């Protein structure tokens, strides 16, 4: 696969993903860069939606499994990843984030990008993310800020309010790291090195 420049990836995410791609693209690329993933990393995207996160991961050259509950495919993710030219790198599997069908400690990285605040039991979902991540892996949760929610609510007045995942469940021995942004905050959840 040809290596794409950051500018090319951001342009693709904006053209195909529209406003969500424009708002989330830079945040996702920063997170992918921060995670320093191996080429063969096992990566999961929880809450496919319109496929922005799966596209971003695949545009960076990684294979990614993405999914959401059966029948909840509200976004044109498949068309989007095809238009981005990365369909061969994206595998869709329906699942409930609160009861995922994956083995313990399976993934090197798990993304939940703008999806957690839509889940009926976000705390159970976080526990599942912790179960499925490898001890040295990283969980990356993107959640809209107050400014981000206000912007989304201009098009969708029923959009849920701001959610801080740190308030939902006890994550010990994992630890949170927060990277703030204008429209999306990035919450990293990792196990400390001495606990791995």
Protein described:
- The protein has 196 residues and is α/β, with parallel strands linked by helices.
- It has one domain (6-195): 3-Layer(aba) Sandwich (Rossmann fold).
- The chain is built from 5 helices and 7 strands, in the order H-E-H-E-H-E-E-H-E-H-E-E.
- It has helices spanning 6-35, 52-59, 77-83, 122-132, 146-155, and strands spanning 43-46, 64-67, 90-92, 107-113, 133-144, 175-179, 184-190.
- Strands 3-2-1-4-5-7-6 form a 7-stranded mixed β-sheet.
- Strand 2, helix 3 (77-83) and strand 3 (90-92) form a beta-alpha-beta unit.
- Helix 1 (6-35) packs across helix 2.
- The longest helix is centred in the N-terminal third of the chain and has 30 residues, at 6-35.
- The model has no long low-confidence stretch (mean pLDDT 92).
Give descriptors for this structure.
5 helices; 7 strands; 196 residues; 21% strand; Rossmann fold; globular; alpha/beta
């Amino acid at each position: 696969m040809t290596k794409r420049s950051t500018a090319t990836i951001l342009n693709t995410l904006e053209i195909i993903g529209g406003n969500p791609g424009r708002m989330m693209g830079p945040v996702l690329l920063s997170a992918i860069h921060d995670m320093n993933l191996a080429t063969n990393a096992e990566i999961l995207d929880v809450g496919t939606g319109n496929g922005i996160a799966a596209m971003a991961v695949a545009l960076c050259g990684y294979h990614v499994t993405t999914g959401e509950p059966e029948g909840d495919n509200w976004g044109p993710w498949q068309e989007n990843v095809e238009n981005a030219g990365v369909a061969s790198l994206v595998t869709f599997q329906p699942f409930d984030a609160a009861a995922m069908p994956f083995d313990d400690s399976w993934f090197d990285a798990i993304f939940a990008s703008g999806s957690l605040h839509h889940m009926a039991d976000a705390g159970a979902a976080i526990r599942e993310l912790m179960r499925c991540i490898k001890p040295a892996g990283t969980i990356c949760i993107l959640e809209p800020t107050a400014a981000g929610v206000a912007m989304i609510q201009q098009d969708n007045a029923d959009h849920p309010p701001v959610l801080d995942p740190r308030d939902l469940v006890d994550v010990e021995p994992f630890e949170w790291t927060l990277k703030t942004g204008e429209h999306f905050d990035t919450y990293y959840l990792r196990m400390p090195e001495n606990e791995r």
